[in-house]
Predict the structure.
Amino acid sequence: MKIGFIGLGGMGSAMARNLIDAGHTVLAWNRSPDPVTELAAAGAVPASISEAFATGIVLSMLADDQAVTDRLLDPRVLTAAPAGALHVNMATVSTALAIQARREHAEHGLRYLAAPVFGRTDAARAGNLTIVTSGDPDTIAEVQPLFDVLGRRTWTVGDAPEHANLVKILGNYLIACSIEAMAEASAVIEAGGMNPATFIEVLTDNLFTGPVFTGYGRMIGNRDYEPVNFRLPLGLKDVQLALASGLERNVPLPFGGVLRDAFVDALAHGQTDQDWAAVTETARRRAGLA
Amino acid sequence: MKIGFIGLGGMGSAMARNLIDAGHTVLAWNRSPDPVTELAAAGAVPASISEAFATGIVLSMLADDQAVTDRLLDPRVLTAAPAGALHVNMATVSTALAIQARREHAEHGLRYLAAPVFGRTDAARAGNLTIVTSGDPDTIAEVQPLFDVLGRRTWTVGDAPEHANLVKILGNYLIACSIEAMAEASAVIEAGGMNPATFIEVLTDNLFTGPVFTGYGRMIGNRDYEPVNFRLPLGLKDVQLALASGLERNVPLPFGGVLRDAFVDALAHGQTDQDWAAVTETARRRAGLA
Amino acid sequence: MKIGFIGLGGMGSAMARNLIDAGHTVLAWNRSPDPVTELAAAGAVPASISEAFATGIVLSMLADDQAVTDRLLDPRVLTAAPAGALHVNMATVSTALAIQARREHAEHGLRYLAAPVFGRTDAARAGNLTIVTSGDPDTIAEVQPLFDVLGRRTWTVGDAPEHANLVKILGNYLIACSIEAMAEASAVIEAGGMNPATFIEVLTDNLFTGPVFTGYGRMIGNRDYEPVNFRLPLGLKDVQLALASGLERNVPLPFGGVLRDAFVDALAHGQTDQDWAAVTETARRRAGLA
Amino acid sequence: MKIGFIGLGGMGSAMARNLIDAGHTVLAWNRSPDPVTELAAAGAVPASISEAFATGIVLSMLADDQAVTDRLLDPRVLTAAPAGALHVNMATVSTALAIQARREHAEHGLRYLAAPVFGRTDAARAGNLTIVTSGDPDTIAEVQPLFDVLGRRTWTVGDAPEHANLVKILGNYLIACSIEAMAEASAVIEAGGMNPATFIEVLTDNLFTGPVFTGYGRMIGNRDYEPVNFRLPLGLKDVQLALASGLERNVPLPFGGVLRDAFVDALAHGQTDQDWAAVTETARRRAGLA
């Protein structure tokens, strides 16, 4: 199958490569040229955004709402795309953007599918992502073979384009809450003269299994926040997406306000390039431990 | 072995029964007589608190700090107990009480061991509790055979008596935070026109496994808070224990303030006899969904 | 003096009328025509935005960032304005917009002054506003005669264009915090079987004087939120401006998260058209009093 | 008139001296002897607590609930007091203690009146306190001549003994909220490159008059927290009293959780002996400004 792929960051590059390895012809675009060159060595065809759309099916994995708006909701791009072309947006964007994107695609006779993913670059490389999608069943069925290459499982969670984004945004919210809860508890443990790693070990042995608690728990318990998989500013961005998703639906999110402040505190202390698990240091600073 | 057991609530009764079934002679006391009568039918020996202490080893599972202070730190009880007798407190009490209890036992030539447990009545019945203890290794070794009857695993987490309580209190804090996080996220999901049960299913399939997220998640996703395993006022009591444990060690706990308010809100709305997972209704009320 | 005036809401109309009464010729524009017609009856000259700018000095009082961006940062407007023309923005806008507006005006050879005001429509009518400005002293001196018509006092608070906005935004933040604090305290008073009005009377007699506590206190104590001077959604908008001003400068604002949720809760309960003092009802609902 | 006075801290000493100066015979007791000696030089009669009660009317100004319970609810003291003797508790204590104290006094045939005060030592010295009382009108009338010596105004706010305490506790809550609000806003102002003192000057000129905003505002704006009138641990104690007063009446207090954490953070950073206005430094630390 011939497909376009827009956005070759860590996640996008890994995903596009899996599609190539599965035998697809991938027309790839990225803002900076290096990732395109690298992917071309693996068999990708460097392309413009319009050339990518010309294949009739484009997967995108751009950084944020702004990038999607600038690159893919540009009227010139949408006007040039062939009738009925399908854009599958796999990035974490706001529900407001999902609603707008679906509408603008429809106005140009195009189709839009939201399909954000859970999983980090290692899961992307392993074709092991969890894909969440929502919308028209026929469209989803059409893309399913590609999803099967990229992920371990696809969930269809609703019929509106923003439903998948809502699940993704609030899933990340649960992760952020889990990190903050472990960070706060670990600060008390440390102030009480104990080793947080022991605390985390007890809790993740049986009560809190699964990669979020065990993975981030290990980082928090050991105060070793490497490797950096998801930087603090991206974490703050996702907390803001959650707060906005609540605001638009009149839902207060008291944990969200706390998260926002904890991440802002981290940025105020120069932790910009650290993994979001390092928000633990905010809890330690507040307690005079750092 | 001949042992005393003080406090036959749902947890205590199940634990004492397992000790009887394992061949131990259990001298049992409870504030109200019915649980004693029931346990006597299974082979327990009704006893006074002092008779229980006279065995040389007493396990206790009382409701809260006040009950422990009133019943087991009574100078008459401590004075009457045989020299070197061991009191194993398996209830969730404050770290301040653990420190005080250890000191007062020592002043009377008695030994005190904190050994709170994770797990609800079904785990207690199945001898499947997770036991957390701290303190003198020889004492722990001495009680280990009893712990092996009661639980699936025993963790020794420190050398001070309050260390085990700290792990227990903050473990419950993590559970309460997880409930609140799922409740908030589910309110946005519901306000967004989706089914929270689907959201929970996606998140617990792979990212958040383990009994806390799957068990409470099912209750929250389905808004079905039965059976009542842990009532809301007990949840609030444990949040207060966490806040106090932070206060005494100068550790701010911003999620704790949010939890406190969510539980108080639930009590203000008559949810006194509901499971603490029903704090979900607070999140729904705030959003005008209830 | 001949001046332009853009934006004739409740505040803008009252301010423009005072300028007319002081003998100035006011070229007025508004999105909807009725306020222009009304003001024309008082002597204003209906005008386009470009005609207003052609006078060389324009005061604007538009609703929010979006309106300012759409109407006054339109490149066509800025290009058409005469060299050196001065735009005095008296509305409550974000500091980000102030920075951007100053830059874009400068790029077109125009001058931009931020001069937001404290005071409601009654103060505007009475020429009794408190005006906060920042920036070039010569420019401020030039506009001072107009400020003297509109307000009781002008404060120059800094040299950057956004400084005045920062003072205005955080001043409103103090007001919102004061309302929430009185609302929370009054809920305890009411739940304790007392009259909140008495509580407010005691507190504002001596400790908390000034219009914020006495004015909003009377509304809160009596649960009488009329007249509606500042609607809840505008209050939420200003809380969001404060949060954004903190976010951009890496300053956590924990009270801000609480305010956000209290206002969202009010909107979720249909209080859209009520004065922001009515956020008191959120505190009462949480306590099961409403 | 012959009266007893219990508790000669800064406030108590100033109040007792005013009573002496007004011609009353004051039998004074204090835990440590020095303040008694000092006051005796001004005319007081050193006395035991029971001798103080023997006068038939005792005013007390002890540090906290614990001191009141230990000294004045001691059954020996209450049993020895003459029938109908009146105890006027002017300290800031919990509403739970007020209820308990009234009951225990009644059980011993004694009368109890709550009459906490607003105002610091300078106001106490000047006889300028604001006195808040509640309960039996005849009893209040009986003490009014003494109140007139001590304060500028007496407010009767309800008929239950705890009503006066509720007003006092929540009044202090408003003060703490005002300090935190000014602290947070000032941190944004400082991070924005401005002088917080200017911000405070603008806000207290007209919107926020009264001693709380002007007095604490000056300390916050100048970051000069001297003189120490009310130490941070006392502030935290009062925040805890407010939280408890809400908890007992099922009223969530979201600002209270934030205050608690801000004060705990300050104590974690060694600010134990500073005035509670210095909680401003917590806001500055969070923003990386300290």
Summary: Chain D touches chain C through 64 residues (CB under 8 Å). The first helix of chain D runs from residue 10 to 21. Chain D has 14 helices and nine strands. Residues 116 and 168 of chain D are 6 Å apart (CA to CA).
